[in-house]
Specification:
The chain is built from twelve helices and six strands. Among the domains are: about 100 residues, no CATH class; about 70 residues, no CATH class. It is elongated and about 110 Å long. About 10% of the residues are buried. Helix 1 packs across helix 4 and helix 11 runs parallel beside helix 12. By secondary structure, the chain is mainly α. The strands form three sheets. Strands 1-2 form a two-stranded antiparallel sheet. It binds adenosine-5'-triphosphate (ATP).
Length: about 300
Amino acid sequence: MAPGLVSQRHSESFPSVNSRPNVILPRREGRRAELPPGGGTRPRLAPTRPVLPSPAPLGAGAYSWSRSGPGRGGGAGSSRVPRGVPGPAMAAADSSLSDNPRTFSRRPSAQASRQAKATKRKHQASSEAPPAKRRNETSCLPAKKTSVKETQRTFKGNTQKTFSPKKHSVSPSDRNQEERPCIKTSSLFKNNPDIPELHRPVVKQVQEKVFTSAAFHELGLHPHLISTINTVLKMSSMTSVQKQSIPVLLEGRDALVRSQTGSGKTLAYCIPVVQSLQAMKSKIQVYYCYPYFTKKNRLRKVT
Ligand SMILES: Nc1ncnc2c1ncn2[C@@H]1O[C@H](COP(=O)(O)OP(=O)(O)OP(=O)(O)O)[C@@H](O)[C@H]1O
């Protein structure tokens, strides 16, 4: 059977359904396009439910009915698609649907409808009024004013009650501190009434001579140390702090030295230290022993 024939017979058997324009057009444009040029009433849109051909009379008891098909439900427009071996009528119907899409209107899926709703919401949000939350906020403004007034009125009566605990919590000593000028005092001295006053004299700047004419070899140092000072460090004369401190330290006495930065204090204590180390005689003598354990295995002094 030819596909054209099937569709023709279907239209004959269901004239009430097929008499409508069985086309779905895009929402706005489609409706505008369907309007007659001179105005008038809007024609009725096509049903979204797809119209499929009725079951072909091919062995009526040989196939089952599909409930998951696009035409769920009964009625004249319902389309129960037979499940099973597709007969020639089904094939013809399929081919006719695929060839002529205008005769088939597919029902939009749930996902498509959800997307359409989402886009609609988006357009509304962008073009029109602010979102519902903001609208609520703006609409609440007058109510807010009244509420503020009300609260002010209520506070007039209860001002002392509400804020009195904070005032009463302040101790008299704290109040005195608040009255004082803003001077921060450490907690160490806060409760100490007797802070001693230190009467310090004004420090006068001392101008001292840095270098002296005294030489290092006058101190009686080890010749190696003197040669090192002269050749490696390239120093010939002592500074004033060195001249005063080195003899005292060489005697083995303690000294507290205070002098200007860069006046040579480091060498003032290092030269006596090195001198005392060089003057030390080792109490440990070097011995060697035989590599094997015999009677001769005893320490022998290295000569
Ligand atoms: N007798 C000297 N003759 C020439 N140069 C010296 C002499 N003694 C120290 N200097 C040089 O003076 C510089 C400062 O010396 P040093 O660092 O010992 O001073 P300082 O008083 O220890 O300084 P700081 O107070 O910073 O520790 C160093 O470069 C050092 O080499």
